[in-house]
Protein backbone atom coordinates (compact mmCIF):
# COMPACT_ATOMS: atom_id res chain seq x y z
CA UNK A 1 0.00 0.00 0.00
CA UNK A 2 1.32 3.43 -0.77
CA UNK A 3 0.32 7.06 -0.97
CA UNK A 4 0.68 9.04 -4.17
CA UNK A 5 1.75 12.67 -4.24
CA UNK A 6 -1.89 13.48 -5.11
CA UNK A 7 -2.99 11.94 -1.79
CA UNK A 8 -4.47 8.81 -3.32
CA UNK A 9 -3.98 5.48 -1.60
CA UNK A 10 -2.93 2.61 -3.84
CA UNK A 11 -3.44 -1.00 -2.78
CA UNK A 12 -0.71 -3.22 -4.19
CA UNK A 13 -0.47 -6.08 -1.72
CA UNK A 14 -3.33 -8.31 -2.86
CA UNK A 15 -2.43 -11.66 -4.26
CA UNK A 16 -3.18 -12.22 -7.92
CA UNK A 17 -4.41 -8.72 -8.56
CA UNK A 18 -2.99 -5.55 -9.99
CA UNK A 19 -2.40 -2.41 -7.98
CA UNK A 20 -5.62 -0.43 -7.63
CA UNK A 21 -6.91 2.73 -6.01
CA UNK A 22 -8.28 2.12 -2.52
CA UNK A 23 -12.03 2.13 -2.00
CA UNK A 24 -13.26 5.12 0.07
CA UNK A 25 -13.41 3.10 3.32
CA UNK A 26 -9.92 1.67 2.73
CA UNK A 27 -8.63 5.14 1.92
CA UNK A 28 -10.11 6.65 5.11
CA UNK A 29 -8.56 3.89 7.19
CA UNK A 30 -5.16 4.16 5.52
CA UNK A 31 -5.03 7.95 5.83
CA UNK A 32 -6.07 7.80 9.48
CA UNK A 33 -3.24 5.32 10.17
CA UNK A 34 -0.79 7.47 8.21
CA UNK A 35 -1.79 10.60 10.15
CA UNK A 36 -1.43 8.72 13.42
CA UNK A 37 2.02 7.42 12.58
CA UNK A 38 3.40 10.44 10.76
CA UNK A 39 2.23 13.74 12.26
CA UNK A 40 3.37 15.57 9.12
CA UNK A 41 0.59 13.72 7.27
CA UNK A 42 -2.13 14.83 9.69
CA UNK A 43 -3.59 17.12 7.04
CA UNK A 44 -4.53 14.03 5.03
CA UNK A 45 -6.82 12.79 7.80
CA UNK A 46 -10.37 12.57 6.42
CA UNK A 47 -12.25 15.65 7.58
CA UNK A 48 -15.42 15.18 9.54
CA UNK A 49 -18.45 16.31 7.55
CA UNK A 50 -20.95 18.61 9.23
CA UNK A 51 -23.61 15.88 9.14
CA UNK A 52 -21.35 13.23 10.65
CA UNK A 53 -22.49 11.48 13.81
CA UNK A 54 -20.45 9.86 16.57
CA UNK A 55 -19.96 6.18 15.84
CA UNK A 56 -22.33 4.05 17.92
CA UNK A 57 -20.10 1.02 18.01
CA UNK A 58 -16.94 2.63 19.40
CA UNK A 59 -18.52 5.75 20.98
CA UNK A 60 -16.23 7.90 18.88
CA UNK A 61 -13.01 6.27 20.07
CA UNK A 62 -12.21 4.62 16.76
CA UNK A 63 -10.97 1.56 18.60
CA UNK A 64 -12.55 -1.36 20.40
CA UNK A 65 -11.19 -3.55 23.14
CA UNK A 66 -12.09 -6.89 24.63
CA UNK A 67 -12.82 -6.76 28.35
CA UNK A 68 -14.30 -9.63 30.36
CA UNK A 69 -15.80 -11.31 27.33
CA UNK A 70 -17.32 -8.12 25.92
CA UNK A 71 -16.28 -5.98 22.98
CA UNK A 72 -16.32 -2.39 24.26
CA UNK A 73 -15.18 1.02 23.09
CA UNK A 74 -11.51 1.55 23.83
CA UNK A 75 -10.65 4.07 26.53
CA UNK A 76 -7.46 6.03 27.13
CA UNK A 77 -7.00 4.00 30.30
CA UNK A 78 -6.82 0.90 28.07
CA UNK A 79 -3.70 2.21 26.35
CA UNK A 80 -1.64 -0.86 27.22
CA UNK A 81 -4.39 -3.30 26.23
CA UNK A 82 -4.78 -4.85 22.80
CA UNK A 83 -7.37 -3.24 20.58
CA UNK A 84 -8.92 -3.52 17.17
CA UNK A 85 -9.81 -0.60 14.96
CA UNK A 86 -13.54 -0.03 14.78
CA UNK A 87 -14.92 -1.66 11.63
CA UNK A 88 -18.04 0.52 11.69
CA UNK A 89 -16.32 3.90 11.26
CA UNK A 90 -12.97 2.71 9.83
CA UNK A 91 -11.34 4.04 13.02
CA UNK A 92 -12.47 7.63 12.44
CA UNK A 93 -14.89 7.74 15.38
CA UNK A 94 -17.69 9.14 13.25
CA UNK A 95 -19.93 8.00 10.47
CA UNK A 96 -22.19 9.67 7.96
CA UNK A 97 -25.75 8.41 7.75
CA UNK A 98 -26.52 7.64 4.14
ZN1 LIG B 1 -16.48 3.35 15.36
Summarize the model shown.
This is Zinc finger-like domain-containing protein. The protein is of the alpha+beta class. It has one helix spanning 24-37, and strands at residues 2-3, 9-11, 20-21, 52-54, 63-67, 70-73, 84-85, 94-96.
Explain what you see.
The protein is α+β, with helices and mostly antiparallel strands. It contains 1 helix and 8 strands; from the N terminus they run E-E-E-H-E-E-E-E-E. Strands 1-2-3 form a 3-stranded antiparallel beta sheet, with helices on one face. Strands 6-5-7 form a 3-stranded antiparallel beta sheet, with no helix packed on it. A two-stranded antiparallel sheet has the order 4-8. The radius of gyration is 15 Å and the shape is globular. Bound molecules: zinc ion.
List its traits.
three-stranded antiparallel sheet, binds zinc ion, single chain, Zinc finger-like domain-containing protein, 24% strand, 98 residues
